[in-house]
Amino acid sequence: MIRLMDLGTEYRKIKQEIDKGIREIVDAQQFTNGGHINRFEEEFARYLGIRNCVGVSSGSTALDLALFALGIGEGDEVIVPSFTFIATAEAVSHVGAKLVFCDSDYDTQNINVDRLESLITKKTKAIIPVHLYGNPCDMDRIMELARRYGLKIIEDAAQSQGAMYKGKKVSTIGDAGCFSFFPAKNLGAYGHAGAVVTDDGELADKVRLLSNHGRRAHYYHEMIGYNYRMDSIQAKVLSIKLVHLEKWNENRRRLAEIYTDSLKDLPIGLPQRDNDKIPVYHLYVIRTDRREELAEWLKENGIETRVHYSLPLHLQPAYKHLGYKEGDLPVSERLAKAVLSLPLYPYLEEDKVHMVIEKVREFFS
């Protein structure tokens, strides 16, 4: 079986570092402090080239905290793409703001910037562009709209650790950036973890307070907050892995280029790469109207695939109350019927990539 991803191989490559780091924390009994979290925050901020990083419990809580800290809530509207994971939309719901779904661009799968301006109203307070699959959004045009209309931009970089847009790491362009360190991500913890990053010191301070019960000192609480903190073991794992991230991302790009060069003559859609963007290929996603047949064929030949994502958010039962119907966001709906993720991870052997290519080509022959 050629797996979609293989975290076991990654662990075996860095086992000594990981085991030693976790043992240090257990021996010292420093599960929620001891400097490991602060150390990772400093290292990750330096890696991104940004002033502040606040480690939190997940990518979902990172989005919640960013919205809360920016003062977005009831009566406000926030524009998000419909074709993404639900956490992006859930955060808007959690703060009581109104969701406004935007269609996506078929070639990039990212939010369609051409559609954004028509969705902005007097109540719009923020846009959350998602750098889907590790491919950066068109941030120049998004930031120009933000300046024109006085909007906040929260970058959802959950799938894009290390991706670049015009020389800057994604997450550092808007008012805040949010990361997930779910185990399968390019930079993944061994459990749930996330981060909020920003150049705004006051915003970072508020995120930090909110994530830790609104307190700076034990039993003294300045505001009502949450228990959204990162733990020490996840911070240590992330510090160890961060050293390897650039090499891992480069391996992903190398394997993605092999896929693209070998499949470009087939009647399928392939990931697009612009000269001013450096993607990190969290997923290698193709598009075909024959997705179900292809997925079954690959399964029969021992190749694991997955669909990210099979139903756009505006058609999810959870958001039925918003009144969207089929046909409202046609590109998102088309993508949901066409996308298929092929195996890709840093330690995937090149011969296995060629085996996947061989079977895809055989299917279309």
| CA-CA gap between termini | 23 Å
CA radius of gyration: 21 Å
CATH topology of the largest domain: Aspartate Aminotransferase, domain 2
Shape: globular
CATH class of the largest domain: Alpha Beta
Number of domains: 2
Low-confidence stretches: none
The assigned CATH architecture of the largest domain is: 3-Layer(aba) Sandwich
Total number of beta strands: 14
Mean residue pLDDT: 97
- Fraction in helix: 25-40%
- Strand arrangement, major sheet: 1-9-8-5-4-2-3
Summing up helix and strand content along with how strands pair, one would put the structural category as alpha/beta
The fraction of residues assigned to DSSP E strands is 5-15%
Relevant CATH superfamily of the largest domain: Type I PLP-dependent aspartate aminotransferase-like (Major domain)
Report the order of strands and helices: HHHEHEHEHEHEEEEEHEEHHEEHHEH
Count of discrete alpha- or pi-helical segments spanning 4 or more residues: 13
Specify the biggest β-sheet: 7 strands, mixed
Describe this structure in words.
- The chain has 2 domains: 7-242, Aspartate Aminotransferase, domain 2 (3-Layer(aba) Sandwich), CATH 3.40.640; 245-364, Aspartate Aminotransferase, domain 1, CATH 3.90.1150.10.
- The chain has 13 helices and 14 strands.
- The protein has helices at residues 7-13, 15-28, 36-48, 59-69, 87-94, 113-116, 139-149, 201-211, 232-242, 245-263, 291-300, 330-338, 350-364; strands at 52-56, 77-81, 98-102, 124-127, 152-156, 164-165, 168-169, 176-180, 194-198, 215-217, 220-221, 277-278, 284-287, 339-342.
- The strands form 4 sheets. A 7-stranded mixed β-sheet has the order 1-9-8-5-4-2-3, sandwiched between helices.
- The radius of gyration is 21 Å and the shape is globular.
